[in-house]
Design goal:
Layout: E1 5-10, H1 14-25, E2 29-35, H2 39-49, E3 53-54, H3 57-63, E4 68-71, H4 78-88, E5 92-95, H5 103-115, E6 119-122, H6 130-140, E7 149-153, E8 156-158, H7 163-174, E9 178-186, H8 188-192, E10 197-207, E11 212-216, E12 223-227, E13 231-235, E14 241-247, E15 253-256, H9 269-284, H10 293-311, E16 317-318, H11 332-336, H12 359-366
Parallel strand pairs: 1-2, 1-4, 2-3, 4-5, 5-6, 7-11
Antiparallel strand pairs: 7-12, 8-10, 9-10, 9-16, 10-11, 12-13, 13-14, 14-15
Bound molecules: nicotinamide-adenine-dinucleotide (NAD).
């Protein structure tokens, strides 16, 4: 029998509740506590999941130290929650994205976990999705031949918030790090502001594999493409993966219908896949995380480099950026949470399961 782990959620807004649902459903893990600032939401969610609720991470750790914690917090509060989990001595920490605003804090979190032997994972990222991981394994097995090009499509709106998804998939598909960023940004007021809200980036990422990746702020299909001489693998959000091989007599790409494996707990979508990989690495002390804290840090760094390259006149910036004090604040709702905008989840909705993060339900709702 795999070892049964205990888990707690820090931050129980709409996404934190989806984490609580998922941890409660998966085998060999028991949700034992939660921490939530908002008194009314804490009371409702703690009752719903039948666990004790605490105000914040320090209060929780005074009472209970679970094996793993998931921070599902507005960006401003992630650093202190992660560092208090490090001090408490948990075995694993996962964070949702973006990891924060500031590179030095991102470094500190990654380094503190590594120095203390704590597994540091990412959370609800598409990169963890089984189909995306499987497509990446086809690419790295050479099933499509040598990858010679890549593009990031639709890198705009929230380049550190939503953009984190694209950078994480790009690095997975190319098995490479971004080593240099050259970017152009618009509109000017977004480029000159502190936050990534509304910022649209075009440019070029140089990758450690030698590939030059084009970056487009606008594109018919949003996501990431990688291609070889005759094939194209596309992550385009929905459907997550499209594969093309060869050309018809008009020169158009021919789309394939690849057979994906079926996966246990697939109904818990990419959060389920991400958490399962996290728990497996915590249990075994080895293996590859579907999404790591390093992945989140790299995504933040590419977003910061894109903004500053554009701001400073499209100068090529080599990564790692030497100035670790650089930062990019995510949109207000991601940075401070939705409550300060008055758009937080109403308390009466916190009583019940919200299926917006479950794919089948999302498709039905979209019809
Ligand atoms: N990966 C994804 O697909 C995805 C999707 C949506 C949101 N997110 C990220 O996840 C985060 C949470 O999203 P959400 O929609 O649930 O946000 P939210 O603002 O509705 O919920 C955050 C919750 O955390 C609580 N909180 C804030 N600071 C706290 C602290 N220090 N200790 C304990 N509780 C605290 C708030 O009271 C609130 O209930 C967001 O910041 C966002 O960036 C990721």
């Amino acid at each position: 029998m795999p070892e049964k782990l205990t888990a707690a959620i820090i931050g129980c807004g709409k996404l934190g509740q989806h984490y609580a649902e998922t941890y409660s459903a998966l085998p060999n893990v028991e949700l034992v506590a939660l921490a939530e600032f908002n008194d009314a939401r804490r009371a409702v969610v703690a009752r719903r999941f039948g666990v004790p609720g605490f105000k914040d991470a320090p209060e929780m750790f005074e009472n209970i130290i679970p094996d793993v914690v998931a921070t599902v917090l507005p960006g401003k509060y992630i650093y202190s929650a992660v560092m208090s989990a490090v001090q408490a001595g948990v075995r694993g920490i996962s964070s949702d994205k973006p990891l924060g605003a500031n590179l030095s804090e991102a470094d500190e979190m990654v380094d503190a976990c590594a120095a203390n032997g704590i597994v540091f994972a990412g959370g609800n990222l598409q990169r963890a999705m089984y189909e995306i991981q499987e497509a990446a394994s086809w690419v790295s097995n050479g099933d499509f031949g040598e990858i010679i090009g890549a593009s990031v499509n639709g890198f705009a709106g929230e380049i550190s918030g939503g953009g984190c998804q694209a950078i994480s998939v790009l690095r997975l598909f190319t098995n490479a790090e971004v080593t240099e960023v050259t970017a152009w940004g618009h509109p000017e007021e977004a480029l000159k502001g502190d936050s990534d809200s509304g910022l649209a980036i075009d440019g070029r990422f140089r990758l450690s594999s030698g590939i030059e990746c084009s970056v487009f702020s606008e594109s018919a299909v949003r996501g990431v493409d990688v291609w070889s001489e005759d094939s194209l693998v596309r992550w385009g959000w929905d459907p997550p993966i499209s594969v093309f091989r060869g050309f018809d007599k008009h020169g158009s790409r021919i789309q394939l219908s690849p057979a994906f494996s079926s996966y246990e707990w697939g109904e818990y979508h990419y959060l389920g896949a991400s958490i399962r990989s996290f728990l497996e690495v915590v249990r075994s002390g080895r293996g590859q995380l579907a999404v790591s804290g390093h992945d989140l840090r790299q995504a933040l760094e590419v977003a910061i480099a894109s903004k500053y390259s554009a701001l400073w006149g499209s100068v090529p910036l080599r990564l790692p950026l030497p100035d670790r004090s650089l930062q990019l604040i995510p949109s207000r709702a991601r940075w401070l949470g939705q409550d300060p905008n008055g758009s937080g989840q109403p308390i009466d909705e916190a009583h019940i399961r919200w299926d917006g993060y479950m794919p089948e339900k999302r498709h039905v709702a979209g019809k």
